[in-house]
Design a protein that fits this description.
Layout (H helix, E strand, L loop, with lengths): L1 H6 L32 H25 L6 H14 L5 H12 L1 H12 L1 H7 L9 H19 L3 H7 L7 H12 L5 H21 L7 E3 L4 H10 L4 E3 L2 H44 L10 H27 L1 H11 L22 H21 L5 H29 L4 H18 L4 H35 L3 H29 L15 H15 L5 H16 L4 H9 L6 H15 L5 H36 L16 H23 L6
Helix pairs in contact: 2-4, 2-5, 2-19, 2-24, 3-4, 3-9, 3-10, 4-18, 4-19, 5-7, 5-18, 5-19, 6-20, 7-15, 7-16, 7-18, 7-19, 8-18, 9-18, 10-24, 12-13, 12-22, 12-23, 12-24, 13-17, 13-20, 13-21, 13-22, 14-16, 15-16, 16-17, 16-18, 17-18, 17-20, 18-19, 18-20, 19-24, 21-22, 23-24, 24-25
């Protein structure tokens, strides 16, 4: 049996197509006998991956608003490590490693969208108190709800709809698990590029050997434009950001950057010009003349971006109306009733018993209820209303999230979370919960629901991978709880440490805080709903109109809106990565097979750069947290760490990094 498993490198012919009448899909691992899946190796490696990628994804999500997908790099590492340690029957174990480890990305996506909003609001409302346990339990309980609500639908999504739903992300991960078994070279490259990317970013973030940003202010003409017309261009040299540009591709990179350029080259100068014209007409002084471009962006242009993000989320929900309708039908479909029936005797059809699922779901909801009363400190009636809101929305949107992942590979979790915040805020205000306590409650509820939806979308991918390969669903389901527990603890610790080290709001203590764009948007939406405080609905409305117009033009409004909101320097490097992607995939004179091999190698290097830079970023934050000194590792090479010399050095270093990326990519061979 062991030699048979080693020879398998391809999925069955009918893995990706619809089955003919009477035809049956037979997975790679035989369904009529036990296979090696859950071992101390697979559990240990899975938990290690969960910790590492939770920390890395949390850092990248809060730094630039992008949570990279952990499933593919985890699969590569699992395959490489199994080969390096000569593990027998590794395929089933690698699925478990991937399933446990992939909890990281989905838990992070749920947490960073909402929880940092508590810290952002705390700057205005000092009564808000945040601790590790609030972050941990909102992530943990939301993750558990996502798993439990999805289990009854497993058979429908992964078996009944076989060949009808494409599952793009699951397909890519499954192919890696299948073809990657022949060697550990890919894992070695991932580690090497991780070290290079991590050390590169550490050189400017901790050692301060060069500046993190390059701006047009270093040339006289650029300084004049910035001072007089408030026009400035910026570029961040981080390995993490340009690597994201490669992964998203040229089209999305350009959409994001064009959104950013609209803010910085049109809206900011426009605000300044309005001030100049007003001053000329009234004989007064331009109130924006003394403000920097950055200050105008933060005060007047960022709210436009928030309005655009909010409307983009609503547009996403409207576009998903058909999916939502089918989700309601799915929730009552007769197909689901047999998901865990006694007739499913084969190992590959065995889910956790429905009695256990219902009991654990009941206990999880009780835990949510207790958490709302003790952790959020609301009244009994308010807790009951909040619990009903969480349960109903999570259940209804769970199938929407799973369906979206199965069809297009992306989860509209931001739009659904935004709708959850608005709905829950209206409901909570109706039962007397408002002010800062209402904001905390709304964001905690949003965090639980957001994590549940994120988990449902990610977990259906894991289950489809298991279905294709032939692992036992009940084992994947059982150990997903363990991965969720470890990921929630890691995310809670990382968010807490990053807040202490960098903060999420600009203060004298933290002049360059983490961006946390989604959490900023959520906080900006919930505050006026709960406090009735002054908010510029006009600026938010302008952003909403821009999102609608962009959508009419066929441009993805969320990507464009995020570009408007995220600071310019964190967007411009995306174009470099996007251009490299376009060049590698469309280079003339080479055949398609070689171009594809180079593209796959570039994806691996980019994933390594991202993971390494993010992990070193967390390490730097941990050093600051422990020492209490933001300059603990500063080499003090420059009297002005962001001066002309430091910026020119940064440009040279970045060109060197790009040169390495291209050189390493060109080493790919057709057979890779």
């Amino acid at each position: 049996m062991e030699s048979e498993e080693k020879k398998i490198t391809e999925l069955p012919e009918n893995a990706y197509r619809e089955l003919k009448p009477g035809e049956e899909y037979k997975p790679v691992l035989p369904s009529d006998r036990p296979v090696t899946e859950v071992t101390s190796w697979s559990i240990g490696m899975g938990l290690l991956m969960a910790v590492i990628f939770s920390a890395a994804a949390a850092y990248s999500g809060l730094k630039i608003g992008q949570v990279f997908e952990a499933a593919i790099p985890i699969s590569i590492i699992a395959v490489g490590a199994s080969a390096a340690f000569r593990k027998k029957n590794a395929l089933g174990q690698n699925v478990i490693i991937q399933s446990i480890g992939a909890s990281s990305g989905v838990i992070v996506a749920g947490a960073v969208f909402t929880i940092p909003g508590l810290y952002i609001l705390q700057a205005k409302y000092p009564d808000i108190q945040i601790n590790f346990w609030q972050i941990f339990f909102s992530s943990l309980l939301g993750g558990f709800l996502g798993i439990l609500f999805l289990i009854p639908f497993r058979k429908y999504f992964v078996k009944d709809m076989h060949g009808k739903l494409p599952f793009p992300e699951a397909t890519a991960t499954t192919e890696i698990l299948m073809t990657g078994e022949k060697g550990g070279n890919k894992a070695k490259l991932l580690v090497t590029s991780g070290l290079i990317g991590g050390l590169f970013d550490f050189c400017f973030s901790a050692f301060r050997l060069w500046s993190e940003e390059i701006t047009t202010r270093i040339i006289p003409a650029g300084a004049l434009l910035a001072e007089k017309f408030k026009m400035v261009l910026k570029f961040n040299v981080s390995a993490l950001i340009f690597s994201f540009g490669y992964l998203v591709g040229l089209r999305y990179a350009l959409i994001i950057v064009v959104g950013s350029l609209l803010s910085w080259l049109v809206l900011i100068p426009l605000v300044n010009e309005i001030g100049t014209l007003t001053a000329a007409l009234s004989g007064g002084v331009n109130p924006f003349a003394a403000m920097s471009a950055e200050a105008i962006f933060a005060e007047y242009v960022r709210p436009i971006g928030i309005g655009a993000i909010a409307m983009a989320g609503i547009i996403g929900i409207i576009k998903s109306a058909g999916v939502i309708g089918s989700a309601f039908k799915l929730a009552t479909a007769k197909k689901v009733t047999g998901a865990t029936g006694a007739a499913d005797v084969k190992r590959t059809n065995r889910d956790l018993k429905m009695s256990f699922v219902m009991l654990f779901l009941f206990l999880t909801l009780i835990a949510v209820f207790i958490f709302l009363i003790i952790g959020v400190k609301i009244t009994l009636v308010q807790a009951i209303v909040a619990l009903i809101t969480i349960t109903v929305i999570s259940f209804l949107f769970t199938t929407v999230a799973a369906n979206a992942i199965a069809i297009v590979g992306s989860n509209p979790v931001s739009g659904m979370t935004l709708m959850t915040l608005i709905l829950s805020s209206v409901i909570l205000v109706a039962v007397g919960l408002e002010g800062w306590q209402g904001m905390v409650s709304g964001l905690i509820i949003g965090g639980i629901v957001c994590t549940a939806l994120s988990m449902a979308g990610g977990f259906v991918t894991d289950l489809k991978i298991g279905y294709w390969i032939g692992t036992t669903p009940a084992k994947q389901e059982s150990y997903k709880f363990l991965g969720t527990l470890v990921s929630a603890a890691t995310v809670g610790a990382v968010i807490f440490i990053l807040n202490e080290a960098y903060g999420f709001v600009a203060t004298p203590e933290h002049p360059n805080p983490m961006v946390a764009p989604q959490a900023n948007a959520m906080a900006a939406i919930i505050e006026p709903l709960m406090a009735g405080s002054g908010v510029s609905w006009m600026l938010l409305g302008i952003g909403a109109v821009i999102a609608v117009l962009v959508n009419w033009l066929g441009v993805p409004p969320l990507a464009f809106a995020l570009g408007m909101f995220i600071p310019l320097q964190l967007n411009t490097p995306l174009v470099v990565g996007g251009l490299l992607n376009h060049w590698i995939n469309n280079k003339k004179g080479i055949d398609r097979q070689l171009a594809n091999a180079r593209h796959q190698r570039a994806i691996l290097i980019s994933s390594g750069f991202i993971a390494g830079a993010a992990l070193f970023g967390v390490l730097g934050a941990l050093i600051i947290f422990i020492t209490g000194d933001g300059n603990a590792l500063n080499f003090n090479l420059w009297s002005d760490p962001s001066g002309t010399g430091a910026q020119i050095t940064a440009l040279v270093a970045f060109i060197g990094l790009i040169a390495y990326f291209i050189w390493e990519t060109q080493r790919a061979k057709r057979e890779d």
